[in-house]
Amino acid sequence: MIAELRESFPTAIVCRVFDVKRSSFYEWIQRRTKLRLSREELKSKVVELHSESREAMGSRMISKGLKSQNIAVGRELARTLMKEANIVSKQRQPHPFRSKGVEAFVAPNLLKRNFKPTAVDQVWCGDVTSLMVGKRWVHLAIVIDLFARRVIGWAFSLVNDANLVSKALRMATEVRTCPAGLMFHSDQGCQGGFNRSSQHLDRGVYGTTRRMDAKNDGPGSDAFSRCTLTS
Known about the structure:
This protein is α/β, with parallel strands linked by helices. The protein has two domains: 2-84, no CATH class; 123-229, 2-Layer Sandwich (Nucleotidyltransferase, domain 5), CATH 3.30.420.10. The chain is built from seven helices and six strands; from the N terminus they run H-H-H-H-H-E-E-E-H-E-E-H-E. Strands 5-4-1-2-3-6 form a six-stranded mixed β-sheet. A hairpin with a 2-residue loop joins strand 1 and strand 2 (136-145). Helix 3 (22-52) packs across helix 5 (75-84) and helix 4 (59-67) crosses helix 5 (75-84). The protein is rod-shaped. The N and C termini lie far apart (71 Å).
């Protein structure tokens, strides 16, 4: 009210009418200005984080990002600031892979959803995932022992191809002794890669793949599920 009236009347008179000290009024004006600037600075930080993530960050990740910079901003405030800045989180689209136009060899499904081996080195599972590191995609292939739920082989590469997964499987065979009858299982849709497991019979590994069903095969097909790293 005082701020509005002082546009038409002297500030001293308006403050006297409302029995408010001029010093208190000016302090209030300064605090309000600082708060407004602080909000604009926060909004700028939000826009910066959002841009650095290629517009992928949502309110939850922006809140975490600001907290990592010792800026206390909750998820609700982050969501509000995003709305004020007119920015939204863009859902990551599936990473495009080019097809060579030739259908890959598919090894027979020997596992038949039996994801409960009774000992180590009976069944290994493989999986590949793609991670955004900086501004580049990095592909990670891993091999786990399905009984121990331990990662026994892994490999990184900028190219998601058969060489990547072969390196992961090769590491696993070097870390573990391969007894006769060892079975290696992967998602049939796994890039190039783990479908080549049938070509590793010289290492005593039998290849098997199938189209995974998320409901039935999830616990076994997700090679990162409840695993620990070993070497």
